[in-house]
Amino acid sequence: MTNDDGTIDIWGGLYKFTENVASSEKPVRPFYVPSELPLTIASVLYRWNQSVLPNDCSIAVCPCDIESVTKMWHHTWGPSHVEQPTRLQQLYEALDKDLWEKGFRWQTISGRSLTDSELSLVHSSEFLNDFLAIEQGKDLSHTNALLNFTYANPDFSFCSVGPYITSACRVAAGSVLALTKLAISGRIQHGFALVRPAGHHSQSDKSGTFCGLNNVAIACIAALSWGAKKVLVVDLDVHRSVGTEEIFSRLEKENRITVERLLLIDIYATFGGSHKAQGPTILVPLMDEKEIGDQQYFDAFERVVLPKAKEFNPDLVLVSAGFDAAKGDAEGFQVTPRGYQELTMQLRLLGSPMIYVLEGGYDLSSLCSSAVACMNSLLSPIPR
Ligand SMILES: [Zn+2]
Prior knowledge:
The protein has about 375 residues and is α/β, with parallel strands linked by helices. It has twelve helices and ten strands. It is an enzyme of class 3 (hydrolase). GO terms for molecular function: histone deacetylase activity, hydrolytic mechanism.
């Protein structure tokens, strides 16, 4: 839609470009004028933050401050991309309508920005240098570390993500750290980090598809430095978490972690490659299954995930919570909200503090119903 002043509205009015990027020419560098955070999110956050909570409230959602959510809201890969800011809007609204309005309550935790030294816990110095250059608004079309920002958004120039992506990345990872610290200190039992961009495809020295910083990997290493003895990552995203796997493998080779202290269990049905795991990783491929739905995930839990998790006996569980195996997502798999609810309850029965961290899932309806189901499970009493 062309505005009266000649600028173009795209992506439902979320962004305005001050140059015409719709021509057949190679995309030019756009100048974003990000829109304000939608009033619906702001009013949800306001009500949550104003509420008096019961004393035994041990579940938390992060981020719940306007500044952090706005930073993630401002980042877009460009129009028509499936990983869109509206994912967050729909998630906050769904949690409010389907749980908060029905009387469920959770602590509202403010997000924070990741520091450079925290970023360097898992990412290389080259990665950090490129990240800082983007943050300063430099044109880095030639860089390798963050080239996937372009790959994830092939219709636009590298610069179309602009410096906004870096503040979104810092808040995404910082919010996971905020919840992790509360879990380690015993101040919460479970948490859900509603963050974007995702992280589990990002490796030590390069970003992965639709991903920024490896939020979960950073939280794992931070947790170990804060006193956690054993951290388990369960990756439920339908895509293989090659980033987390590579990072853990490298850290193990560098003797910075041991398999006794950090374990990744990755259930996946696509982006397979060789099923040979690197480092402290147990792969649970579902590629050969005829149909992939609740039963296949339940079987994988019974066969591998739960026995290995119990044997490992973690004092913190981080879940890479991708919902792209959900029924309704374009990947075409069939996991239902009921399935995600049950899987979450199975993980709760391990008895460890647990943080859910949003990864993939791009159909807005199935994304929301799946995340609500997991949150419902985190909030519900454990059946006796
Ligand atoms: Zn995915």
